[in-house]
From TrEMBL:
The lineage of its organism: Bacteria, Bacillati, Bacillota, Clostridia, Thermoanaerobacterales. One of its GO terms (molecular function) is isochorismatase activity. InterPro entries: Isochorismatase, Isochorismatase-like_dom, Isochorismatase-like_hydrls, Isochorismatase-like_sf. Gene3D superfamilies: Isochorismatase-like. Belongs to the isochorismatase family. Keywords: Hydrolase. It comes from Thermacetogenium phaeum (strain ATCC BAA-254 / DSM 26808 / PB). This is Isochorismatase hydrolase. SUPFAM superfamilies: Isochorismatase-like hydrolases. It holds the Pfam family Isochorismatase. It comes from the Bacteria. Residues 5-169 form the Isochorismatase-like domain.
Length: 187
């Protein structure tokens, strides 16, 4: 064990393309090139890439809180074109905030021998935070590329970054730090 994995959280059309049902806004668009760089780094170093994707059923209970979004089989539930998965990438559908809740993520990571995870995506204070928390509860080492995550709420974004770092022990990095080789030693 001890391997690494890059986890891309909810970079889906409904969140990061203008006109999407829960468009995060420009913050979501700004992280796309950062995530593209992280994907390039991971793939060039043979680090597995896992996409965690909201895939709701029509009438999902989450729609009592948020507008209908990322319904399975719709444009809104697809990964944005700029970050499209490639052959060999793993796609894990989810119906709740955490990428671990009710999914095969833990099994996939264990089969890949991954213990060091780096997270990118949206929303920092929702799906990224709860995926990071559940990863830490399972004793994974977790890093977040802080310039590769975004939210529709800047204060909640900042709170989530502090919470992940101070409470969960998540390492916060910039993509430049990860590209410069820290990925080899930390995540």
């Amino acid at each position: 064990m001890g391997g690494k994995a890059l986890i891309v959280v909810d970079m889906l059309n409904d969140f990061v393309v203008e006109g999407g049902a829960l468009y995060v806004g420009e913050a979501g668009r700004r992280v796309i090139p950062v995530i593209a760089r992280a994907l390039e780094k991971a793939r060039s170093h043979k680090i597995p890439v896992i996409y965690i994707c909201d895939r709701h059923l029509p009438g999902d209970r989450e729609f009592e809180m948020f507008p209908t979004h990322c319904v399975a089989g719709t444009w809104g539930g697809e990964v944005c074109a700029e970050l499209a998965p490639r052959e060999g990438d793993v796609i894990i559908p989810k119906r709740r905030y955490s990428g671990f809740y009710g999914t095969d993520l833990d099994l996939a990571l264990r089969e890949l021998g991954a213990e060091d995870l780096v997270l990118v995506g949206v929303c920092t204070n929702i799906c990224v935070l709860y995926t990071a928390a559940d990863a830490r509860m399972r004793n994974y080492k977790v890093s977040v590329l802080k310039d590769g995550v975004a939210s529709f709420d800047e204060k909640a974004h900042e709170f989530a970054l502090r919470e992940m770092e101070k409470t969960l022990g998540v390492q916060l990095l910039l993509v430049d730090e990860w590209e410069a080789g820290n990925a080899d030693s930390c995540c």
